[in-house]
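Q: Joint fold for the lines below.
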Amino acid sequence: MSSEEKLLLKKAIKGDIESFERLIEKYQVKAYNIALRMMGNEEDAKDTLQDAWIKIYKSLKKFRQDSSFYTWIYRIVTNTCHDALKKRNRINQVTSLTDYSNSFEGEINDIKDEVHIPERIFENKEYTQLLLESLDKLSTDHKQIIILRDVQGFSYEEISQIMACSEGTVKSRLSRARIKLKEIISQDRSMEQI
Amino acid sequence: MNCADIQEKMSLYIDDLLDAHDKQLVEEHLLQCKSCSLEYETLMANTEALKRIPEVPLPTGFKEELHTKLVAEQKKKKSKDWRSYTVIAAAVLIMVVSALQNQFFDHKNLTVDEAASEEEAPRTGSKWTLANDSQEKSMNNSAMFSVESAPESIEMDSMTEGIAMLSDDNAFETYEAQVTIKGDTLESAAAYFREYIIISSYYITMKVNEDEILLEVSPGGFDLLLDHVTAYSKVDSYNVNVISLTEQFDYTASEPDEDVSLKAIEDANIKGMNRNDSAEMQQESGDLPEEVIEDYIEQPIRNATIIIEVIE
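A: Joint structure:
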């Protein structure tokens, strides 16, 4: 934390709203985008993020200055989104798909749809839309890690701090999340083709 | 490396986090295995597409709405703080009023004043004080208490603080805890406990002697007080004893002043006591008259104590 941030933090802990707003200014957009991808729509993202900022404002005293401020902030944001999603009953566990982390033997026989991916498909807007819709169908934990790593670009270490888990867990969870996202997209594309 | 191994390493390969050796093995396998190669292409395409998702700006009015909510939150907090301050202020006011009242009754009722002046009144080293649960006051000038009424007590000197409490509980046992604090000063420890006494809903007395602090509270408030005491960072050890009051009688009297005999003080105390009220005394010589002992039998000592030894 810079000395300016430390000073703002000190004032914000005492209740100074302006100092708090200046302190969180540079994290606002990223936090909003995390919330938006987690919640799936603007309205819920806005409400949930504001709830998270209020929680952070009230909990500033609890921030231990030996860890990084932004991972602490994003942890509260993602946890608040997590809780809001639970409340909204939108935790979708992807079922009936093979758990690749445990069951692999020999060749891959479980890929349901061997579709050749056109080059530069990632530049296709429709594909991106399909991707976002499929992302929304993941379980909350898988969605969260994909958003933090692939959408927001946090490192494994940062993600482990935000999600309060080990880097090993981050690696295995991310691997499973990417595979499941692929399978959802494949299923959705198959449905479209029918 | 087989396909299962490749699958496990695929995600790290996409993020370029494999060491050189594993990276080479994966690349060699992908050149040979169509399925794994397709898997890799798909995962990679998804990752690239996710990276390119544009960042969305904050919605219009977001910061203003947040500001309004923060202001409301701040007002809520201030309102809670004011309620706490009001309670503390009320407690302090009660203490001051009772102090003034005690001063008034002092001149009317205290016969011990005839035996010893206020300056000579025994106060140091005394652990217990006489008390009754009427409006009449203790004979000991170092602290005065009442029981059933609102707390009435005064601080006679800097060594005796707090509001006395005698319990209405019908408990026939009480508690005594010994606590050791190390690496701290008496003043610092006393300041910590003083803060709790002010806000506690139980009546607690605190007396500070040379190297120890004595806290006294009704058995009902013992657990909370002990929790607070043992939460103090400098506490080294503690133990708790349960004292049965049906088998023991403790009488107390202040240590006599040089010029005043113990007997004289006891006589004065007995004259001032209301027989219908509870009385708590510690007997040193068993010379107290029978009626006093009978009073004591009916309503034994109920206060719990915490004796805190402070070692610097």
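Q: Anything notable?
A: The radius of gyration of chain B is 35 Å. Strands of chain B lie at 160-162, 173-182, 205-208, 212-217, 235-244, 304-311.
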